[in-house]
Design brief:
With 220 residues, the chain is of the alpha/beta class. It is built from 10 helices and 6 strands. It has helices at residues 19-33, 39-42, 50-61, 67-85, 97-106, 120-127, 150-158, 173-181, 192-195, 210-216, and strands spanning 6-9, 110-114, 135-137, 166-170, 185-189, 200-202. Helix 1 (19-33) packs across helix 4 (67-85) and helix 3 (50-61) crosses helix 4. The chain starts with 5 loop residues before the first strand and ends with a helix. Bound molecules: 1,6-di-O-phosphono-beta-D-glucopyranose and magnesium ion.
Length: 220
């Protein structure tokens, strides 16, 4: 068993629910382009970078565009999304997240963020979560998107803990794969159907504690 010395958290879907703001902003864009974008379609965008999300959206709408136009649309969507997250506050922290972050501190476990979002700082600041982190790695620091392990390897490096002592908390399949590729254990936040590759799956951080984690991972 490798001792747990750092916990690395995805942001959207693990600590806060920004997926609905992403959804509204992408749906508005799809409407302008003349097609429907459903909540079911939105599942495909979770954990995926902004540029890759736009490509999926355009594929759903059967639209082909040049790079310049795509950059303009991605910016347009982001401007709308930023308007929504500007109004966020601590009431939008997901159940159990704050208590578990505090518990990690009490056990001297390092805490790092590993998010694809380029808006992570705004969200962390608006919800008051920033002080709970020893390191913040987001889409402004990375060159490769999950399932590439880069974001989590940079997080581990920033808190100076070896991957075998890190545990990743993720709501996206690509994020679980990124954790495995980084040589880290993972906890899937959501349903076992999509996150079956994780070492442990729980519905939310409310069902997790440092002791429970140590017990579950005793043999891994
Ligand atoms: P932005 P995470 C991801 O955040 C979201 O899940 C994904 O839907 C979004 O496209 C991506 O961030 C990029 O976000 O447009 O704000 O840079 O789950 O990795 O915390
Ligand atoms: Mg996520």
């Amino acid at each position: 068993m490798s001792e747990i010395k750092a916990c690395l958290f995805d942001l959207d879907g693990v600590l806060v629910d920004t997926a609905r703001y992403h959804y509204i902003a992408w749906r508005e864009l799809a409407e302008e382009l003349g097609f429907d974008f459903t909540e079911h379609d939105n599942e495909r965008l979770k954990g995926v970078s902004r540029a890759a999300s736009l490509n999926i959206l355009l594929e759903i709408g059967g639209i082909t565009l040049g790079e310049e136009e795509k950059a303009r649309l991605a910016e347009q969507k982001n401007n709308r999304y930023v308007e929504y997250i500007a109004k966020m506050d601590s009431s939008e922290i997901l159940p159990g997240a704050l208590d578990f972050l505090k518990e990690c501190r009490e056990h001297s476990i390092k805490v790092a963020l590993g998010s694809a979002s380029k808006n992570a700082m705004t969200i962390l600041n608006n919800t008051g979560l920033t002080p709970y982190f020893d390191a913040i790695i987001d889409g402004t620091h990375t060159s490769a998107a999950k399932p590439d392990p880069e974001v989590f390897l940079l997080g581990a490096q920033a808190v100076n803990i070896a991957p075998e002592h890190c545990v990743v908390f993720e709501d996206a399949e690509a994020g679980i794969l990124a954790a495995t590729r980084a040589g880290m254990r993972s906890v899937g936040i959501g349903s076992p159907e999509t996150l079956g590759a994780a070492n442990l799956v729980v519905p939310s951080l409310q069902q997790i504690s440092v002791d429970a984690l140590r017990e579950s991972f005793a043999a891994i």
